[in-house]
Design goal:
Blueprint: H1 3-16, H2 24-36, H3 41-54, H4 59-63, H5 66-79, E1 85-89, H6 95-102, E2 107-111, H7 115-127, E3 134-137, E4 154-159, H8 171-182, E5 183-190, E6 193-202, H9 204-210, E7 214-215, E8 218-219, E9 229-232, H10 234-239, E10 243-244, E11 249-255, E12 264-271, E13 276-290, E14 293-296, E15 307-318, E16 323-330, E17 335-344, E18 347-349, E19 355-357, E20 363-366, E21 372-373
Parallel strand pairs: 1-2, 1-4, 2-3, 4-5
Antiparallel strand pairs: 6-10, 6-11, 6-13, 7-8, 9-15, 12-16, 13-14, 13-15, 16-17, 17-20, 17-21, 18-19
Helix pairs in contact: 1-2, 2-3, 5-6
């Protein structure tokens, strides 16, 4: 058979291949087709579609985040001891596993449930000469059995399975299982703990991006109720600078060495310490990897993590006498936050231009329909 025809046949097989194996067989077929005809149009397109489907794009800026990588390297060097068994959950490309091996671990078990990523991690680890000290396990960590998948329980549980709110990747439940089932008593955890925080921010540009008022002379405000929670990427933060109007206050504390997976709720009064306009409540985190070594996605962070901004229904002019009462809740994987009330100055100018009069004492302005859930 002609080489081009052979490539066409491989692509046809790839197109009908089930993806229940996480794309492994499809990837092999497409790779073989491309080895025969590197410029094969359909094979190139299908291969890229497959990669985007199974390898989330955030992996690449994460691996390029030098601050994050440096912090993990320092924390792992500080906490991993010679002779340790390390369980690395959500190993991805294998970087954290290799850092643990470099720090002196006897053996590292790198857990990665996505087959294409696990296969690539094996190649990365082999290319760095560490295959004899790192074993890649292509499973969910919940399905690992001590004595079968790993020979003994771990001295260190290493992970980086958090999202911008510390919850979205199911970190609490995963680490709860790992620390109680797969780790030795008094095992060390990296990271150790995390804190979710909230603060008042101003950003005309962010509101203009998420809630454009007019387009070609048409009023779009009836569409704004869909834009209550803004996921602010690092690029968004550059294009739409966020100005802090007050300090970040802690909402929830998470102990990753002994995770609590039960829902929690709290209320917090967020102060405004300077004049401005409140556009949103920004939620960010600080995560302690080891004593004195932290990573954060706060306003001063330059890392790859995004941030979450809960937009107020209306921009609220504020001064140093203004504060916002919020209620926040979380379960094992999601966070919700609503604005309960705003303590405003005696007289403020409403965003519409109409004057709103308050009595001379402190006033409380109820805020309805502020519930937003990730």
């Amino acid at each position: 058979m002609h080489i081009a025809a052979e490539a066409d046949a491989l692509v046809e097989q790839a197109q009908i291949q089930p993806l229940s194996d996480g794309g492994l067989m499809t990837s092999r077929l497409l790779s073989e087709a491309l080895s025969k005809v590197p410029h094969h149009h359909d094979a190139q397109l299908l291969n890229e579609q497959l990669n985007q489907m199974f390898v989330p794009r955030w992996h690449f800026p994460m691996l390029a985040d030098t601050d994050r990588n440096s912090a993990y390297a320092k924390a792992i060097a500080a906490k991993v001891q010679h002779g340790d068994i390390v369980l690395d959950i959500g190993s991805g490309a294998g970087l954290t596993a290799m850092l643990a091996a470099r720090a002196g671990a006897k053996h590292v078990y790198a857990v990665e449930h996505q087959p294409l990523i696990a296969a690539a991690a094996k190649r990365v680890i082999a290319a760095n000469g560490l295959s004899d000290r790192i074993t890649v396990i292509n499973k969910w960590s919940h399905n690992i059995v001590v004595g079968e998948d790993i020979p003994e329980k771990a001295d260190v549980v290493l992970s980086e399975i958090v999202d911008s709110n510390l919850l979205g990747e199911g970190a609490l439940a995963t680490l709860k299982h790992a620390m109680t089932t797969l780790a030795k008593p008094n095992a060390r955890a990296i990271p150790e703990r995390g804190t979710l925080m909230a603060q008042l921010v101003e950003s005309d540009a962010l509101v203009a991006q998420w809630r454009p008022q007019l387009a070609e002379g048409f009023d779009l405000s009836a569409f704004h109720h869909f834009a209550k929670v803004a996921q602010v990427t690092p690029n968004d933060a550059t294009a739409c600078p966020l100005r802090a109007l007050g300090p970040a206050k802690a909402l929830f504390h998470f102990d990753f060495a002994n995770p609590n997976i039960f829902p929690e709720h709290t209320s917090a009064e967020l102060p405004c310490l300077q004049d401005g306009t409140i556009h949103a409540v920004l939620v960010s985190f600080e995560m302690e990897l080891a004593p004195g070594i932290s990573v954060s996605n706060g306003l001063q962070s330059k890392g790859h993590w995004g941030r979450t901004a809960y937009l107020l229904d209306q921009a609220t002019p504020a001064d140093i006498d203004t504060s916002v009462l919020i209620v926040a809740q979380h379960d094992a994987t999601k966070l919700s936050l609503c604005v309960e009330s705003i303590k405003a100055p005696a007289i403020i100018e409403a965003p519409t231009g109409a004057n709103v009069m308050w009595n001379s004492s402190r006033a409380t302005m109820p805020q309805a329909n502020k519930q937003a859930q990730l």
